[in-house]
Amino acid sequence: MKVVIIGGVAGGASAAARLRRLDEQAEILLFERGEYISFANCGLPYYIGGTIQKRNKLLLQTPESMKERFNVEVRVQCEVTAIDRARKVVTVLDLTSGKTYEERYDKLVLSPGAAPMRPDFPGSMLPNVFTLRNMADCDAIKGYLTESKPARALVVGGGFIGVEMVENLVHAGVDVTAIELADQVLAPLDYEMACMVHQNMRAHGVDLRLSTGLEAIEQEGAGLTCTLSGRVKVFADMVLLAIGVRADHALAQQAGLELDIKGSIRVDEHMATSDPDIYAVGDAVAVSDFVSGEKAVLPLAGPANRQGRMVADLINGREASYEGTQGTMICKVFDLSVGATGNNEKQLRASGRAYDKVYVHPSSHAGYYPGAETLSLKLLFDPASGVILGAQAVGKEGVDKRIDVIATAMRGRMTVQDLEKLELCYAPPFSSAKDPVNMAGFTACNVMKGDLRQIFIEDLKDLDPEKDLLVDIRTQGEYDAGTIGNAVLIPLDSIRDRLAEFPKDKRVVIFCRAGLRGYIGYRILVQNGITNVYNLSGGYLTWEPVYGAKNKSCGGGKTTRIPKEKA
Amino acid sequence: MKVVIIGGVAGGASAAARLRRLDEQAEILLFERGEYISFANCGLPYYIGGTIQKRNKLLLQTPESMKERFNVEVRVQCEVTAIDRARKVVTVLDLTSGKTYEERYDKLVLSPGAAPMRPDFPGSMLPNVFTLRNMADCDAIKGYLTESKPARALVVGGGFIGVEMVENLVHAGVDVTAIELADQVLAPLDYEMACMVHQNMRAHGVDLRLSTGLEAIEQEGAGLTCTLSGRVKVFADMVLLAIGVRADHALAQQAGLELDIKGSIRVDEHMATSDPDIYAVGDAVAVSDFVSGEKAVLPLAGPANRQGRMVADLINGREASYEGTQGTMICKVFDLSVGATGNNEKQLRASGRAYDKVYVHPSSHAGYYPGAETLSLKLLFDPASGVILGAQAVGKEGVDKRIDVIATAMRGRMTVQDLEKLELCYAPPFSSAKDPVNMAGFTACNVMKGDLRQIFIEDLKDLDPEKDLLVDIRTQGEYDAGTIGNAVLIPLDSIRDRLAEFPKDKRVVIFCRAGLRGYIGYRILVQNGITNVYNLSGGYLTWEPVYGAKNKSCGGGKTTRIPKEKA
């Protein structure tokens, strides 16, 4: 058995190592067109920013170590330029010698990854206009930062790499302007959750401009004048293009393999391409979305590794099938962590899936123990069954833990009713007796049982003073520090004494800081005959990052972007 | 509907609040014999140690706030002394006035908690011999620390409270001797995992003595001379007795309600006692163990809160049933976190359940990103189905997250095969592309599929040089720094060249640092004809805390305590 693997990072390296563990006799040959295999591509921004200090920490395996440990022959700087499927050979171009040769295969594994998009606009190829994918890119940026000590950078694109590079450039002492064509960064989040990230980036001195594209770059002296949407010009010493990646399908296409959405390589549930002797894994393939079942391209390291491992099993005649990608993600943005799993509201709407949602903002651990931070958690679920459809979280502590718990529950096809019952670690430094995930479960179950009716921040614009009364049920002090619109104040603990102030001929919309007092207030009101009541889900803490006084610029002022509540 | 609740901390307070949310009209009356309700009992050690600085942070609700917000009448310093079930009345002793009166109930909720055990040995009631359960105890210890500035303390008992108090007394500048009658602290852990905690406590200057009991305390001047097992005497200014708690069943017993194991109150799956109008919740009741289905007494805050909430649902005619307690726990011990969920090996053996186990020691996050720490994880599973039976983890970072993920998987009755597939948050500051939970899943699946045969540290004592060869497959440098017994060194990367050195007529036992290289070595050997091979699960990192040179005193030298591998 001779297995040829094309691409030596996450998926390819995982496949190679497991192939050897399963079959000591197989001939395993790995081609990598770059200079390095198995480098820590997720770590590159942190090396550039200086958090990771030693470059060699990024190099997890070398061709020598792969040979020694796994008896895998690795040929770097060797590009496979063609696949002859009939003859089962690949054509290899040795980039150092310029020579071309062929290698036979029994099974072929494609792990070509995805390449940064670099659209063809004026100036896109100027010096000091960078992209970041591999060690060569990393070295170029790091070298430039070290030698030229740039004062200003423009980062184009608010995805993972863009946002991580913004933080790391700031960490390296560079003033950063960040632009994003959409009205939010980090597409896995919904808009209102992303607004918390926008606030945080701006608080860290980032000149963040949303709904803003890059149209041209011109050399001006040693610097670059960048023309943004609306002919706004900003000056920068360097530009990082991080506007997304595109599946690297060139070789697959040349070989006549079927492609899939967004230029990805089509694979079945066994990661086999349209040629059963050729597998493909990682960022280049389309997978099925775990929630919707629809095709998706989700370039994530965890799935790439698992797919590589799985292909090794399949090549060795074992049974395995890929059950879809949830899109679980986490991203550090300065002192915030931002995580998500499953589908977001945008995706659920697009796929026509019925859903409901709750927002909670509990403490990351017991509030009386030092260091507790507000954790903002959005949970999406099926309104009939309670099956969990997705979650998003933003906060300074414990975001990864809560998203991991929910991601695990989703894999087990668990429901919000199950989240209520989860028995999670509790001691004051770590959580509360009712963990934030339990709280989200409680709230969702309250909604499902009809114990709580919710309204959402995007609905508030439709309030009509003739028909609706907006009531702030927080304290006088909280109210004085800022409320929503022209809400009247009736603190929660006075509601039972002031029932007469709630009209029975209007809809009453109440809100508190995070939603919990609102729920209590709701229960008091509906059981005292004020039945046309709605509680603002997530309260002021959900509203403020989107619409608050300090956030007028958030979303380019497009506060109407959030769609109306579903029927 | 008049509901009387006895006990105003976790379970009682949760029941009261939810009762009101579900029924605005109910009469809810809560009796608490202490001065405070709803105080942060899990926070008391941290207030004593000074981490929580303000005492009022511990008081989460007051009788006034419960009245204002939930219209619950709270009577503190009122002890219910008797229940007349026939008449449905309770007898109340007002501890301030000394007067006794009766209150009628429709439904009664018992949440009496559990009291610290204070065995009747000589000196147990001397001044400066403390227990810690409530605010009064907390104030006594804090007052004593502040006024008397003790130099030395003896902490008796290595459960949660004992271990947390050890840390907090050290934090407050006190020299601590800690004794525990068993050969390990923190009973939810198995012995070999607890040894990591013993190492850490000793590294922080604690004089930890295992297999050691307290026999007597004598006043000697201003101090206390404590006689330990074997007539060893230690001097201390104060003694904290933290030898465990016992369900407070006095009232239930007086009322003729059925009791259960360990003096707990018997309840059914609806938390109803043998009287259908009387419920009991929290630390005083026996629950069913989620894994074994056997009765268990597990005093934990999370379950207490959930039970209180559930009882409110049931009283309001809603359906609910308690599905058992997993015993998920976490404990901070200096810079370590120690967590567990489900059954440990001791419990599984005791209940005769078939199980297998794996140990892994991966990094808490990507090793190339600063701050990564070794996370030691033990996973117990059903050897036939792969159903997860329990897990334990010890480490400086990310312990709570991994135990929460596994606890969630267990609630979903998931398997180790599911752990392989979990899609968890990955970015370098948070985890690795293969999370420690995935790694444990991979390892367990390798064992289940027969891709790896394991041996455990407790089996090494049975090695016979005539029949077995112990091989250290780490590097020369690691070997030189300390190896196991008289192991020979054959580094992993040289195995293929040195196959002739592995005997075919002996059992070959290989080990590495954490088990992963051992797995790779195992695969190389068995596929090259050396088939009688076993890999030491968890490698040197599992062995060293138990048997390493620095740990001779660990377990009181009783290294033979760990039982032999099951058949």
TrEMBL record, chains A, B:
<dbReference type="Pfam" id="PF00581">
    <property type="entry name" value="Rhodanese"/>
</dbReference>
<keyword id="KW-0274">FAD</keyword>
<feature type="domain" description="Rhodanese">
    <location>
        <begin position="464"/>
        <end position="552"/>
    </location>
</feature>
<dbReference type="InterPro" id="IPR036188">
    <property type="entry name" value="FAD/NAD-bd_sf"/>
</dbReference>
<dbReference type="InterPro" id="IPR001763">
    <property type="entry name" value="Rhodanese-like_dom"/>
</dbReference>
<dbReference type="InterPro" id="IPR036873">
    <property type="entry name" value="Rhodanese-like_dom_sf"/>
</dbReference>
<keyword id="KW-0676">Redox-active center</keyword>
<dbReference type="Pfam" id="PF02852">
    <property type="entry name" value="Pyr_redox_dim"/>
</dbReference>
<comment type="similarity">
    <text>Belongs to the class-III pyridine nucleotide-disulfide oxidoreductase family.</text>
</comment>
<dbReference type="InterPro" id="IPR050260">
    <property type="entry name" value="FAD-bd_OxRdtase"/>
</dbReference>
<keyword id="KW-0560">Oxidoreductase</keyword>
<keyword id="KW-0285">Flavoprotein</keyword>
<dbReference type="InterPro" id="IPR023753">
    <property type="entry name" value="FAD/NAD-binding_dom"/>
</dbReference>
<dbReference type="InterPro" id="IPR016156">
    <property type="entry name" value="FAD/NAD-linked_Rdtase_dimer_sf"/>
</dbReference>
<protein>
    <submittedName>
        <fullName>CoA-disulfide reductase</fullName>
        <ecNumber>1.8.1.14</ecNumber>
    </submittedName>
</protein>
<dbReference type="Pfam" id="PF07992">
    <property type="entry name" value="Pyr_redox_2"/>
</dbReference>
<dbReference type="InterPro" id="IPR004099">
    <property type="entry name" value="Pyr_nucl-diS_OxRdtase_dimer"/>
</dbReference>
<dbReference type="GO" id="GO:0050451">
    <property type="term" value="F:CoA-disulfide reductase (NADPH) activity"/>
</dbReference>
